[in-house]
Specification:
Methane Monooxygenase Hydroxylase, Chain G, domain 1; 3 helices; DNA binding; Metal_Tscrpt_repr_sf; metal ion binding; Copper-sensing transcriptional repressor CsoR; Metal_Tscrpt_repr
């Protein structure tokens, strides 16, 4: 089955967030190079991970709004099942 055609919202905000996260990761690298306090490094790692989780949540939300909702509106039961299965697989990979 081919993927359904859909439109994604402007990715600019997500790209901006990812660039900020990229800067956080570079900062963590620098902290390690400077032998900074371990707990300060861990705190920054947790902040970067939380920021990345927010980006992931937004991408998933957009996926549900564009792809899954599109399959529902189109009444395409096969596409709905496939997309929901893909979503569940993605959500449970890290568990």
């Amino acid at each position: 089955m081919k993927r359904m055609a859909h439109e994604h919202k402007d990715p600019t905000a997500l790209v901006t967030r990812l660039r900020r996260i990229e800067g956080q990761v570079r900062g963590i690298q620098k902290m390690l190079e400077e032998d900074r306090d371990c707990m300060d490094v861990v705190t920054q790692i947790q902040a970067a991970r939380a920021a990345l989780a927010k980006v992931e949540a937004e991408v998933l939300r957009r996926h549900m709004e564009s792809c899954i909702e599109g399959a529902i509106v189109a009444g395409d039961a096969e596409a709905q099942r496939k997309l929901v299965t893909e979503l569940m697989t993605a959500l449970t990979k890290s568990i």
